[in-house]
Design goal:
232 residues; alpha/beta; two-stranded antiparallel sheet; Rossmann fold; globular; 11% strand; four-stranded parallel beta sheet; single chain
């Protein structure tokens, strides 16, 4: 049954902080795993990758544990995110000295998932196409298709029409991120929003010609030039 539910597919969640990426990714992954009869933490961990429990089973104790374990599908879906790296945030504020380690850990998480044939949602901001490159090479290596997904909610900037409404939406994201579990400075949010708009202007016309082909998306990513207004 799992082979019909799960795909060898890498989904890039694309959007600024607070735009709904993580909620969308978790909801999709939970729905896929539930359809396969699994109860599993949607976020990748080395324990989770070997510890999925069929929905409705016990905690594995007793005589039924063996039969329950045998019914676990060999594949499932996971969310991989640098944000889940231990101690990356303290009181909601990012520890920038750990950011490189966090992204290396995220890359290895995706690799481990692909080695097992699991479906993967990459829940980083992904608003710089040059940051896709290593993951696209992984997709090629393991025979995965790719998908570019931006949450379709009220914070979806490229669908907003009119500068006044854009400013209103941006203020909402700044407010959310100033009071939520992660505190992102307002100037950083605005910088990310500008970069996101530039990236979406690259992605939208590329979707029809690239489809789910990692080779074609690699051409897009490797030819992308960051806008001059963005600090590097």
């Amino acid at each position: 049954m799992s082979a019909q539910i799960f795909k060898k597919e890498l989904t890039f969640m694309i959007g600024i902080s607070g735009s709904g990426k993580s909620t969308k990714a978790r909801n999709d992954v939970n729905a896929l795993n539930k359809k396969a009869g699994l109860t599993v933490d949607p976020n990748f961990s080395e324990d989770a990758i070997t510890g999925a429990i069929p929905a409705g089973s016990t905690d594995g104790a007793g005589a039924g544990a063996g039969s329950a374990q045998q019914s676990v599908p060999t594949t499932r879906a996971f969310v991989c995110s640098a944000d889940n790296f231990p101690d990356l945030y303290t009181d909601g504020r990012i520890n920038f000295h750990l950011l490189g380690d966090a992204h290396s850990w995220c890359y290895q998480s995706v690799r481990m998932c692909m080695e097992g044939g699991h479906q993967v949602y990459l829940d980083n901001t992904n608003i710089r196409p040059d940051h896709w490159v290593d993951y696209l090479y992984l997709a090629k290596e393991f025979g995965y298709t790719v998908r570019m997904l931006t949450p379709t909610n009220k914070l979806l900037f490229y669908e907003v029409r009119g500068k006044a409404r854009q400013d209103q939406q941006l203020s909402h994201v700044v407010a959310v991120r100033s009071t939520g579990s992660k505190v992102i400075p307002a100037d950083k949010i605005r910088e990310m929003e500008s970069l996101f708009m530039n990236t979406m202007s690259t992605i939208l016309p590329a979707k029809s010609r690239c489809g789910s082909d990692p080779d074609k998306w690699l051409q897009v990513a490797e030819s992308w030039v960051p806008p001059r207004t963005i600090r590097r």
